Amino acid sequence: MIYTLGESLMDMITTYEGNTIAKPGGSLLNVSVSLGRAGKDVSLISEIGDDETGNQLLEFLHINGINTDYITIYKNCPTSKALALLDENSKPSYTFQKSYPIDRCLAKSPVFTENDILILGSMYSRDPEIEYDLDAYLKAAKRGGALIVYDPNVRHNHQLRNEASREMLLKNLAYADIIKGSDEDFSNIFNAVSIQKVKEEVFSMNNNALLIVTLGAAGSIAFYGDKMFKSSILKTHVVSTIGAGDAFTAGLVNAFIDNEASDHLEFSDALIEGMLAEGSQFSSFVCQAMDNYIPVRK
């Protein structure tokens, strides 16, 4: 089972031309739906309210085959929303309307095994208000031998001014078996001006991880041990970049499952190259439409 841990909300997207549409969103919800549409078994760990928006999210997840048993539903609480404004390059800027009760509690962690995968990331993965629950999931996944995938998704360096939030991010990096982020993410985290510096910073705290850095139009690059891998981006007519990074994460995981070696914590050269290629393909699919996830397979 793939367990995705992250925020669920409704994206209210306004295009550069002024048109507005609503799409279920949240980084790990996007990952979940792309993987579900790729035919994988996915269970989303999240929180929503008991309002109409929450019901719409649950229905959408069910339609896409996502297990919702680990979603906490808060009584008399609205579901969070994100206002996304696309610029002339189809890149979004966000305003979040988060709605959570004072007392929050994630569902109890499952018993992870080495056949499972835990994916987490974004601001949700470094929220001090649920630190205890997040820590429980990470420890349970590590104890059970599950593969842990982490995408820090730090859009602005001011998001790490909270010391507790920064400490949680560093802990997540230390736990992860696959660390994937954009060059912008890592620049904000480490104030790094070069990919080599990013590699040094990450490997100083976790030298066993597969590190993947997306480079926008320049493609992506991966480091594993003393090896480096590069992949080009697919030429795409870009409609919206919302969910593109999430789709890349989903593509990585989908390729890993389809081509996994006998030892699920070892990455062969061919496996890494296949993961980068499928990550790029999934991302390209998402950029070509106003959806935050890959299209339904026919």
- H/I helix tally: 8
Query: What is the string of SSEs from the N terminus onward?
Result: EEEHEHEEEEEHEHEHHEEEHH
Task: Name the CATH superfamily classification.
Answer: Ribokinase
Number of strands: 14
What is the CATH first-level class name? Alpha Beta
Radius of gyration: 18 Å
Biggest sheet features: 10 strands, mixed
**Helical content (DSSP H or I, runs of 4+):** 25-40%
Instruction: Give the uncertain stretches in residue-range form.
Output: none
Distance from N terminus to C terminus (CA atoms, Å) equals 23 Å
Which CATH architecture would you pick? 3-Layer(aba) Sandwich
Structural class: alpha/beta
Strand content range: 15-25%
CATH topology: UDP-N-acetylmuramoyl-L-alanine:D-glutamate ligase
How would the global form be characterised?
Answer: globular
Averaged pLDDT: 89
Tally of discrete structural domains: 1
